[in-house]
Amino acid sequence: MHANVQPHVLDMRMIESVNNSIRHLSPTEIRSKMKRRSLRRVSIKPSSGVANDMHSGSDWDKAEFVLEELRRQCDTPADLLYRLVEDMVEEMKAGLAKEGGSKDYKMILTYVDKLPSGKERGHFYALDLGGTNFRVLRVSFGQDGSTPVFQEVSIPQEIMLGQHEELFDYIAGKLAEFVSKEDSSYHPRPGCKRELGFTFSFPIKQTSIDSGELIKWTKGFAVEGTAGKDVVQALNEAMERRGLDMVVTALVNDTVGTLAVASLAASKADAGDEVMISVILGTGTNACYVESIDAIPKWKGPKPSSGNMIISMEWGGFSSSLLPRTQYDEALDAVSVNPGEQIFEKLLSGMYLGDIVRRVLLRLAEEAALFGPSVPPNLLIPCILGTPHVSCMHQDKSSDLQEVGRILSNVLGIHETSLELRKLVVEVCSIIAKRAARLAGAGIVGILRKIGRDRSKHDGSSSHRTVVAMDGGLYEHYPLFRAEMKAAVVELLGSEVAENVLIELSKDGSGIGAALLAAAHSKYSRYGW
Ligand code: BGC
């Protein structure tokens, strides 16, 4: 990832700047600082011919120091990832042993113990709530050629930060609007109601397939009064208040919906692949997987006939002290709506990557005057730089990094940037994205290890290929991120084992999967699983 920066040797000016920066340090601190400086591999400092084009007064030594420190702190070598994998597996076991057994993973029992059969029939609805938009959809199962009907609704900020009833009334209102446009062929039979799969992509304590209490909000939601309440009951009551003939029959996490849809697709393809894991890398992040019921001591119910249950890990809560965190991550966490929580999520999901990059650029502006004598005001605006901007800049293939220049100008108000400066920005994006992608890769390997799919077939493990179904904008729209993540998985598993692990995009599962699960748990239909 260092191809875009110019090799440069440590020169006298740099030694001087090191001297200045160590004046107040103890001998031990100096030794360790000097040792770290000697790790320097490349320089972002412009060559002398270019230096005149740069903003006068920029301190490239300082910029280089900041960048090298960032590289070092975000480094994720294989040995670190292996240790993280071990930590993850221990936390998974602890979370399965008893409720609250892991400090990090909720290991939520989803009450989904079988995957779709393909025999589901009828019209079903889904409400997919998990980000700044929610989606309402209707899916007609068992009708060849019928395509799902979607409607996307954005959630106003005041609702995301408002009161419990307001949120559910808002959603019920939009659901009522959606069905009011339907013709009579979709009206439920007398005595029946429309059935809805509710994808609620926040940590919940699920108590049955159609009930569960919110543990805490994530992803910028902070609706008052919802934590500890049954969200299905809240939605059913709001729908009743609207006079809507609809009822929730399945409450699912987006990871579970994705697993359900991917699994149905795999069983139709009949290639013997087993969808065991699903991961969302979008605004937030999480993973679910198929666990053997015997490995879930906290499950007190009857043993399901499949012998398995899907566990939604809520892996965003992972917080090992081994995680490679920086001052930027800590500052971001401190001003988030949930400080100290969702530490893993804050290192790798779409909601945060842009703002981490902004924070690094802000330091470069403040301490190295990299964008001119004063700090560009837009750099001070939290979240102004989104992960899509990071992805766009990182993947800019033009020789003069036009996209980078455009985003710096249009979004951050930094105009007339030199090529060297743009390269530096690309380097920051690359470091932050690579760390995120490799951590996600380690997360996947942690699950594979937990279910014994991280070994070669000679060890008696399943002879089927293991599918990891992926969804979420970060994964879908950021090819370099995907490539880094897959490379990390191969590096950790070894190529022979990795050949039997398919990491595949499975789109729109969160909504369609919820409708499928609603069909499977229909109160009126005889087509269940
Ligand atoms: C939520 C999870 C969800 C994930 C992906 C996280 O913030 O806690 O429930 O699955 O985002 O949407």
UniProtKB/TrEMBL annotation:
<dbReference type="GO" id="GO:0005536">
    <property type="term" value="F:D-glucose binding"/>
</dbReference>
<keyword id="KW-0418">Kinase</keyword>
<comment type="pathway">
    <text>Carbohydrate degradation; glycolysis; D-glyceraldehyde 3-phosphate and glycerone phosphate from D-glucose: step 1/4.</text>
</comment>
<dbReference type="GO" id="GO:0001678">
    <property type="term" value="P:intracellular glucose homeostasis"/>
</dbReference>
<dbReference type="InterPro" id="IPR001312">
    <property type="entry name" value="Hexokinase"/>
</dbReference>
<dbReference type="InterPro" id="IPR022673">
    <property type="entry name" value="Hexokinase_C"/>
</dbReference>
<dbReference type="InterPro" id="IPR043129">
    <property type="entry name" value="ATPase_NBD"/>
</dbReference>
<dbReference type="InterPro" id="IPR022672">
    <property type="entry name" value="Hexokinase_N"/>
</dbReference>
<dbReference type="Pfam" id="PF00349">
    <property type="entry name" value="Hexokinase_1"/>
</dbReference>
<feature type="domain" description="Hexokinase C-terminal">
    <location>
        <begin position="277"/>
        <end position="519"/>
    </location>
</feature>
<feature type="domain" description="Hexokinase N-terminal">
    <location>
        <begin position="67"/>
        <end position="261"/>
    </location>
</feature>
<keyword id="KW-0067">ATP-binding</keyword>
<dbReference type="GO" id="GO:0005524">
    <property type="term" value="F:ATP binding"/>
</dbReference>
<dbReference type="GO" id="GO:0008865">
    <property type="term" value="F:fructokinase activity"/>
</dbReference>
<keyword id="KW-0808">Transferase</keyword>
<keyword id="KW-0547">Nucleotide-binding</keyword>
<protein>
    <recommendedName>
        <fullName>Phosphotransferase</fullName>
        <ecNumber>2.7.1.-</ecNumber>
    </recommendedName>
</protein>
<keyword id="KW-0324">Glycolysis</keyword>
<dbReference type="GO" id="GO:0006096">
    <property type="term" value="P:glycolytic process"/>
</dbReference>
<dbReference type="GO" id="GO:0004340">
    <property type="term" value="F:glucokinase activity"/>
</dbReference>
<dbReference type="GO" id="GO:0006006">
    <property type="term" value="P:glucose metabolic process"/>
</dbReference>
<comment type="similarity">
    <text>Belongs to the hexokinase family.</text>
</comment>
<comment type="pathway">
    <text>Carbohydrate metabolism; hexose metabolism.</text>
</comment>
<dbReference type="GO" id="GO:0005739">
    <property type="term" value="C:mitochondrion"/>
</dbReference>
<dbReference type="GO" id="GO:0005829">
    <property type="term" value="C:cytosol"/>
</dbReference>
<dbReference type="Pfam" id="PF03727">
    <property type="entry name" value="Hexokinase_2"/>
</dbReference>
<dbReference type="InterPro" id="IPR019807">
    <property type="entry name" value="Hexokinase_BS"/>
</dbReference>
